[in-house]
Amino acid sequence: MLGYLLLFIVGKTFYNLALKYSKNKWLFAFSGIAAYYLGLYIGIVFFALFSAITGYPYFDSVNESILSVLALPFGLLLSLVFYIFLKRKWSTIKMKDTSDILDTNFLEK
Questions:
Q1: pLDDT digits over 44-65, tens only?
Q2: Which of 67, 63, 21 is nearest to 43 (CA)?
Q3: H/E run at residue 95
Q4: pLDDT of 48
Q5: What is the pLDDT of residue 12?
Q6: In angstroms, rounded to a whole number, what is the distance separating the alpha carbons of residues 16 and 95?
Q7: Which has the closest alpha carbon to 79: 1, 24, 8?
């Protein structure tokens, strides 16, 4: 149940960010969820490599739910990094300067 709540929070956060900057809302909501799942996958691969390098048979006796809880910070961190990247990228995009156009007043109406 906690996983569904986290998916909703991540999706809603990216949805609101895309709404603020007039981007495709659903595309970036699903992109944020995909980044979360990619981070979970990276976390599990990290623990598998750590287990292989140290020789500790960690994955033989661990429950899958415990492994997903251990990988949770990786998913949240990657989605946070993706969120910050999109926010910085979209906030630096400037509007086209129309001050040199003679009919600026006409265009603003």
A1: 898 888 888 888 776 677 778 8
A2: 67
A3: none
A4: 83
A5: 96
A6: 20
A7: 8
Contact 68, 2 (CB under 8 A): no
Single out the residue of 17, 2, 25, 1 nearest to residue 79, CA to CA. 17
| Lookup: tokens for 26 | 């659903």
Model pTM score: 0.77
The tally of domains found in the chain comes to 1
Placement of tokens 């990619």 in the chain = 38
Query: Which domain range does residue 28 map to?
Result: 2-108
pLDDT digits (tens, 9 = 90+) for 69-101: 888 999 999 999 999 999 999 988 765 555 555
Please report, for residues 40, 46, 96, 107, the alpha-carbon distance to residue 100 in angstroms, rounded to integers and kept in the order given: 50, 55, 11, 12
For residues 78 and 36, what is the distance between their CA atoms, to the nearest angstrom? 6
